Amino acid sequence: MELTSSTWTELAEVETDLAVLPVGSTEQHGPHAPLGTDTLNAEAVAEAAAERHADPVVVAPAIPVAVAEEHRRFTGTLWTDESTFRAYVRDVVNSLAAHGWDRVVLVNGHGGNVAALGEVAARIVRHDDAYAAPFTWFDEVDAEVNMGHGGPLETSLLEHANPETVREDRLDEAAAGASDRWGDWQGRVNLAVDSHEFTENGVVGDPREGSAALGEELLDEAADALVALLDAVAERDPRPTAE
Amino acid sequence: MELTSSTWTELAEVETDLAVLPVGSTEQHGPHAPLGTDTLNAEAVAEAAAERHADPVVVAPAIPVAVAEEHRRFTGTLWTDESTFRAYVRDVVNSLAAHGWDRVVLVNGHGGNVAALGEVAARIVRHDDAYAAPFTWFDEVDAEVNMGHGGPLETSLLEHANPETVREDRLDEAAAGASDRWGDWQGRVNLAVDSHEFTENGVVGDPREGSAALGEELLDEAADALVALLDAVAERDPRPTAE
Amino acid sequence: MELTSSTWTELAEVETDLAVLPVGSTEQHGPHAPLGTDTLNAEAVAEAAAERHADPVVVAPAIPVAVAEEHRRFTGTLWTDESTFRAYVRDVVNSLAAHGWDRVVLVNGHGGNVAALGEVAARIVRHDDAYAAPFTWFDEVDAEVNMGHGGPLETSLLEHANPETVREDRLDEAAAGASDRWGDWQGRVNLAVDSHEFTENGVVGDPREGSAALGEELLDEAADALVALLDAVAERDPRPTAE
Amino acid sequence: MELTSSTWTELAEVETDLAVLPVGSTEQHGPHAPLGTDTLNAEAVAEAAAERHADPVVVAPAIPVAVAEEHRRFTGTLWTDESTFRAYVRDVVNSLAAHGWDRVVLVNGHGGNVAALGEVAARIVRHDDAYAAPFTWFDEVDAEVNMGHGGPLETSLLEHANPETVREDRLDEAAAGASDRWGDWQGRVNLAVDSHEFTENGVVGDPREGSAALGEELLDEAADALVALLDAVAERDPRPTAE
Amino acid sequence: MELTSSTWTELAEVETDLAVLPVGSTEQHGPHAPLGTDTLNAEAVAEAAAERHADPVVVAPAIPVAVAEEHRRFTGTLWTDESTFRAYVRDVVNSLAAHGWDRVVLVNGHGGNVAALGEVAARIVRHDDAYAAPFTWFDEVDAEVNMGHGGPLETSLLEHANPETVREDRLDEAAAGASDRWGDWQGRVNLAVDSHEFTENGVVGDPREGSAALGEELLDEAADALVALLDAVAERDPRPTAE
Amino acid sequence: MELTSSTWTELAEVETDLAVLPVGSTEQHGPHAPLGTDTLNAEAVAEAAAERHADPVVVAPAIPVAVAEEHRRFTGTLWTDESTFRAYVRDVVNSLAAHGWDRVVLVNGHGGNVAALGEVAARIVRHDDAYAAPFTWFDEVDAEVNMGHGGPLETSLLEHANPETVREDRLDEAAAGASDRWGDWQGRVNLAVDSHEFTENGVVGDPREGSAALGEELLDEAADALVALLDAVAERDPRPTAE
């Protein structure tokens, strides 16, 4: 049940306490992939899982701007302060819970959101009338290609679920200006706060290693993992654990 | 230029300092119109104006959840605190401005956002490196039908721009449970903070008074008004006026 | 019962749950009217209504500095951030409510406060142990003259209730430098965040169109409207509606 | 120059960089003195000093509600959170400074405000374009009677400057229910956060020990001290010291 | 029972509701005393009292950085914003209370913390499930020498409890550059927000007037006062008084 | 150069721009290790590296209470809100930078702090006059034993650097009640926000697998990694990158 396209009277008849909130980002993904990559991919996984789940799952509209200041030097990247982002996510989850959808999975498509989502999910679990768990789709798949940034994993999922958004004719250019690895490392500390310090065109990894076929597998795998998580989340108690 | 579907390299070649940020809401719009009504309509107006404008206009992704606690009792309505909403809008505008798109119109589709948008736009004008102006599309059209809520104006624009989202077979039901007027008034003070106090099914006004043809006129009129506003905004100085 | 001049032992004997909180501003009102115009007028209306009301009404001290940054370029204007203003109003209302005066009307004398008062009143209604409603006196009167700023409405009420504060010998000067209309408009969007952009001497409208006699009528009308609102507010439930 | 009663054009001609901001409170002062005692006394001292000072001194409107939760159990006491109070004071001082009045004395009439005023004054000095110093009038006088609360010092100043506000016929009652000393002490730690724990009727000290004549002396002494402070403050640099 | 060196299983067996939280500072104390002076002294008093008390007293780790911006110009001084400091103290007290240790004395070693501690302790008493009282050790001793800063009181306690930290060979230098009095006074107002305005080497008072023997007496006296305070605090109700 | 034990005059002679800020926690570490484990270990690594480094390195006092609400059910655990923690760390780093020590490594001993430290370090790098990098000691060592919690890594370092704090006679008990793995997992999502959900006595891993000899190696390895990081950090530009 997508909130955006449903009426309130239709939703009032749905019996469920499960919801997913896609969390994306508007940020550079190299010369070949759109700024909406993370949002599109999070939506694809959220919708696929909602369809597959045995019980109804409410799908909230995706949060389009998130924690992405790291890409600030690449044109078009938008971002919000982590505190604002957490407050926004928390308010959305709590309004979902106000309608009885109080077990919420935050379906995330952007690595830069992971820490902030972990913090806000824990705060919701401890202090609000809802249970929330973050789920980052590319952490849940087993692939022989790297995650990178605008790399084969993300590009493959786009090629499968939103093929018109990938500039196939720029994949070579994307690969040529890419770096091999995220960050500028000393030991296990990344010294570079922003990505332009270590990637020329914003890409990390070689997007040519992906394919629409791989994207289909990834979506399948991620959606299954999310369905399994929803089943587990359905068993959690939504009451605040720390009050 | 839609940010969501563009790549950063494409955007880097665009010469403009104009951007529009659609601001919607996810909230009940009666039994006949979807929760995404305000977002869809704001996007439709923003995109139409961006297409018509002589110079390129950057179109940011729509903010999907906003100031809508007033509809909290109708299933599916999502909301955020006004402070969080303002902070989120301000961050998005400032990241647009970081790329040189520092004259931004906030294209709004929801009456409940008006006050908060006015406050944050003034703060941006006075204190940030950007000029921002709020534009609420239905305030800019001259129509013989009322605004209401889920009423003929909003429904008409949906019927034109997103016809599949309107449940035409429920328009009678929508009209039957609608109230005539927004609010519970004593003099010119609305005593009712929340809408369930004065409307049974969430509708104000009679959506049957609208039509797709009217919607086309409304979109035309609103898009023209927005184009004219963009021209005026292009002349404003983005530097902070109060520092 | 004015709080400022009463003792706590006198107040402890009052049986009422009604209070009014005058909300003014310290801001330019042209060469003919004092910076305290909005505060003086809000107090005049609040006191007149409290006197007329059948049951006792507690009158809190007026808030003297509010949302007036728009007049920052005119000497002597004071202002506070909207967030601080709302927090201050909320704290005052909640301390009134702590004594059992938990139906509070915010009697406002300044247009720039309207949005912020609406926001904080709704927050109080939903989340605190009080009911609050904003009342802007000049929105409640039917007059053939315009509101403007330092214009005939405000000047008339001063001429009646605080005649010594009006510089009658500068009314011509006031009118000469006044603008006809508030704002610098493109369609229905005011592009000018600050008033010096559209008024030379800070005045909007012609204060000579007013008079003490009109002021008496305005006070009468506004006080009656406020009495009626107090009666309506007395019926509201002070408990938080959203918790 | 009182801001409240002046016009902006009059103020624009004043040559000074000195301002005083009276800071009061609305709180119980026993059965004999009004809730506005602290505000009235702060205003009296501020105005007297402004009159005596050789150069013009701008007098801002008094802040009427401040840090007084300690009296919450006595009817009519109003209070605001310390953080809100500091933000409000800081905004007012900064708007005074925006007009060139950037050496500001906070003329305080309430002991409960002292700590918060000290904190905000230091923040202004270090970080804002203004110099601010707190001045609590009763700390600057040498009297043989105690301060207390609603005691001889405060009552005397009222009896001189606002004699109609003192209920002389209740002085005996005030004294009868008064405590000797502020607080409930263990060593030099006051265990009682709120005043009802140690005073039956809110009074500390015997207000009968004061008189209008003493009040005249106190006003004289406090106003002289404030004039001297203004002279010293005029020599301070308003630029931020920590940036 | 020191938290830092105990295991949770040991603490789980302790029967008490008393805790002390040492609050220090890292700030200049002249050429003879270490930056940790206030922390070391607060710890010494807290530990001595905990040992002497008949019932077990939990000793939290000392807060090492506090309200010390006034010493910013002397190398090595660290500080935090007052708001952050209060939030940090409040969180620590509330986590102590979560384990049943809900009567907490804030054992303070720094004059600059006094106002902020008073504010946060009152907030805890009124709004949280704990009772908290601030205790500043040097306010509780009767000595013939002055407090000053890095002066005889503080130096003596160091000489007794942490003798290795005092540079005895620099006491003459310390005294030579010291000022007699804290502040730059006009009447009873200190015009100097920062200490470098009135002391050349950061010292106020003559540290040579102290001694280890005096330090022993001071520790004895302060510890006894704290034991007595703990006894009094044990009788207070930890429930919030204002809710 | 430890700040706590140094005088400001000594520090004023040090020529360096490097500082380390140990960040610990006060939280349960099973029946065998003290609540101060993370603080003690962070201090040990910070001090060892400062000693080894060719140039002087300023050592700030350790932050003793941090992000540890996850252990709230185990007696004695203290915690602060993540926002407060970040604000506290940021203030300390900025006061270090005010003395010219503007390349700061946050030497962390607690896994629960990692996300919050990453966020605040990036904020400092982008917006403040300092460069900061987080360093979590146990992420920098290569060991054949697991990290766990109160497990072999942490216990070994204690056994070497603070042997008196380890209850060797309770290692068997610690191991008996330990869990094998941190968290309650569904796929790669940890469903358990708090640790008591998956460990009986708070321990994860078998502390008996460690030893003082291993601890010595770990300290050596971690200190070397930190020295190398300090060398890299010394090359970074402390100016804000985003302003």
Automatic annotation (TrEMBL), chains A, B, C, D, E, F:
Record flagged with keyword Zinc: yes
Cofactor(s), names only, from the UniProt record: Zn(2+)
Keywords: Hydrolase, Metal-binding, Zinc
InterPro entries named among the record's database cross-references: Creatininase-like_sf, Creatininase/forma_Hydrolase
Highest taxon of source: Archaea
Protein name according to UniProt: Creatininase family protein
